[in-house]
Design brief:
- The protein is α/β, with parallel strands linked by helices.
- The chain folds into two domains: 165 residues, HUPs (Rossmann fold, 3-Layer(aba) Sandwich), CATH 3.40.50; 118 residues, Elongation Factor Tu (Ef-tu), domain 3.
- The strands form three sheets. A seven-stranded mixed β-sheet has the order 1-2-5-4-3-6-7, sandwiched between helices. Strands 10-11-14-13-12-15 form a six-stranded antiparallel beta barrel. A two-stranded antiparallel ribbon has the order 8-9.
- Helix 1 links the parallel strand 3 and strand 4.
- Helix 7 packs antiparallel against helix 8.
- The longest helix has 20 residues.
- The N terminus is likely disordered.
Length: 313
């Protein structure tokens, strides 16, 4: 168990290792992937917290790692959030406990009844909140009707949450991913309720940016979905504003290797080995090939001015 802000995170590695205290039969649980914890997810958790308050229960979220589609589907979609950030944002929305169930072939094979008896019951579920299209158990055999019947027999109530939407439709992780694929980070932020976050470890690069007068931190091991290649204005948590380039550096690079590098404005210092967290604020332009290095340097200068305007204007 690890504490995170005001939310407690419990890693459920196997069905034979359920947590004990503080689960004393006083839990209201909502279930889902919650990738990105977008505005729709936040709405559900807030609704759950209100339900829990009215019933004197503890609001909790049950989620899964890895994404179920990685085990039983065609492969997981690009992830919008790490488990750690997911738990933090769920806590900010009103959850007190987050259960992270390891999703593997054995878990995927559970019948709907076993899902309830071996997973939900030991977590002290007395109220369960799901969407009207919720399915559970092997091959998604269980549905809301069956969950209600099981609840009547096992002693928990079932509540269907409302759907949150705006003028463009329902909030969804898919909608956020489509916006990022198009490079529209502002549209993604309208779904997520915050800028999309990238986190990566700073590694040693070729120091081309330093030679051009704009030193950059080269990032690797980024777990979150990357947006469409190009140049972005970003806020670097704890370090200031920056300009991010995602692409292949066609003017100066001689190989097709994806580069992700950020120039932090007005910053000096050694960042090697550090993990940076970047909030994507605005797309500035596509990556492009310039006729000369001088033209590239001039454009980077324009990018810096544009980033300052977008980030501080």
């Amino acid at each position: 168990m690890e504490g995170m802000s005001e939310v407690q995170v419990f890693r459920l590695e196997g069905l034979d290792a359920r947590p004990q205290a503080p689960f004393d039969g006083n839990t209201a649980i909502t279930i889902g992937n919650f990738d990105g914890v977008h505005l729709g997810h936040q709405h559900v958790v807030k609704e759950l917290a209100q339900l829990a308050l009215g019933k004197g229960l503890n609001p909790a979220v049950l989620t899964f790692d890895p994404h179920p589609a990685a085990v039983v589907g065609r492969g997981a979609p690009p992830l919008l959030s790490t488990v750690q950030d997911k738990a933090r944002w769920l806590g900010e929305a009103g959850a007190r406990d987050v259960f992270v169930q390891r999703f593997d072939a054995a878990f995927a094979a559970l019948s709907p009844e076993a899902f309830v008896d071996q997973l939900l019951a030991p977590l002290g579920a007395r109220a369960i909140m799901v969407g009207d299209n919720f399915h559970f158990g092997a091959q998604r055999a269980g549905d809301v009707t069956q969950l209600v019947a099981l609840g009547a027999d096992r002693g928990f109530s079932v509540h269907v949450h409302s759907l949150a939407a705006d003028g463009e439709g329902a909030f969804s992780s898919t909608r956020a991913r489509l916006a990022l694929e198009a490079g529209d980070v502002q549209a993604a932020a309208r779904v997520l309720g915050r800028p999309h976050l990238l986190s990566g470890r700073v590694i040693e690069g070729e120091q081309l940016g330093r030679k051009l007068g704009f030193p950059t931190a080269n990032l690797s091991d980024i777990p979150q979905m990357l947006p469409k290649g190009g140049v972005y204005a970003v806020a670097v948590e704890g370090a200031g504003d920056g300009v991010l380039n995602i692409g292949y550096r066609p003017t100066v690079a001689g190989e097709r290797r994806l580069s992700i590098e950020v120039h932090i404005l007005d910053y000096s210092g050694d960042l090697y080995g550090a993990t940076l967290r970047l909030q994507l604020i605005a797309r500035l332009r596509d990556e492009q090939r310039f006729a000369s290095v001088d033209e590239l340097v001039a454009q980077i200068g324009c990018d810096v001015v544009a980033a300052r305007t977008r980030l501080r204007g």
